[in-house]
Specification:
alpha/beta; Rossmann fold; 2 domains; 10 strands; 32% helix; binds adenosine-5'-triphosphate; binds magnesium ion
Length: 213
């Protein structure tokens, strides 16, 4: 279980104060909604380690995450778009999800398997910048498969996609979360995404997360 308890953060220059408490469990998608500017991305940045809280606790199965720098946190992140290096091939982008010491043959096998798992076995050599938006999000998801960290943070990951692609990518996130037993935290404005995916739901308002029963 991922648990935050009274995780506080302030931006004094903006008179903003946050106090986040939540729990999220493996194999399920926990949604966070809230108006624009309410602090959703701030919350994900605190979990990912890009921001440092002033007080409070953040742990995964009892292990304190706060001392860990971002690269050592057991976390993958997927943003709305721009998750890939456009000038690199899909395969080269995926290779970045693997430890540098991975032997080449092993690396190529794992990259091929990850692309097949997201339904894109044909794009390995294609430059990421030439992939469609939906394909880019699938490749980014394939990279999280290779990283295989227990926590997946999603910040409006479907927003740039048309309705059909959106449903496909959404289904993929749902399937992977269950199959890999990930703890997935989904930030979304879209109530239909939340209804389709989330088993647990928070609303962020006035700097705090409220559990929707
Ligand atoms: N580096 C910064 N310096 C000052 N204020 C910031 C900084 N980053 C974010 N903020 C402010 O913090 C508030 C929360 O921002 P945040 O990005 O977390 O909102 P959000 O809920 O993700 O919004 P959206 O739905 O539009 O993405 C906003 O008012 C924003 O302007
Ligand atoms: Mg945001």
């Amino acid at each position: 279980m991922l648990a935050a308890a009274d995780l506080t953060f302030t931006r004094p220059e903006r008179h903003l104060a946050y106090r986040f408490s939540f729990t999220a469990v493996p194999g399920e998608i926990t949604a966070v909604s809230g108006s624009s500017g309410s602090g959703k991305s701030t919350l994900l940045d605190l979990v990912a380690g890009f921001l440092v809280p002033h007080s409070g606790a953040l742990d995964l199965d009892g292990r304190d995450l706060l001392p860990l720098p971002p690269e050592a946190r057991p976390v993958s992140i997927l943003f709305q778009s721009d998750s890939l290096f456009e000038h690199l091939s899909a395969a080269a982008n995926l290779a970045l999800g693997l430890p540098a010491a991975t032997p080449r043959a092993d690396r190529d096998t794992r990259i091929a398997a990850a692309l097949a798992e997201v339904g894109l076995p044909q794009v390995a050599a294609q430059r990421a910048g030439t992939l469609s938006g939906g394909e880019q999000q699938r490749v980014a998801l394939a990279r999280t498969l290779l990283r295989n960290r227990p926590v997946l943070l999603l910040d409006e990951p479907f927003s740039a996609l048309d309705d059909v692609t959106r449903r496909d990518v959404r289904d993929l996130v749902y399937r992977l979360t269950r199959a890999r037993n990930w703890i997935t935290l989904l930030v979304s404005h879209h109530q239909d995404d939340i209804a389709a995916l989330a088993t647990r739901r928070y609303v962020l308002a006035d700097g705090e997360l409220g559990l929707v029963e």
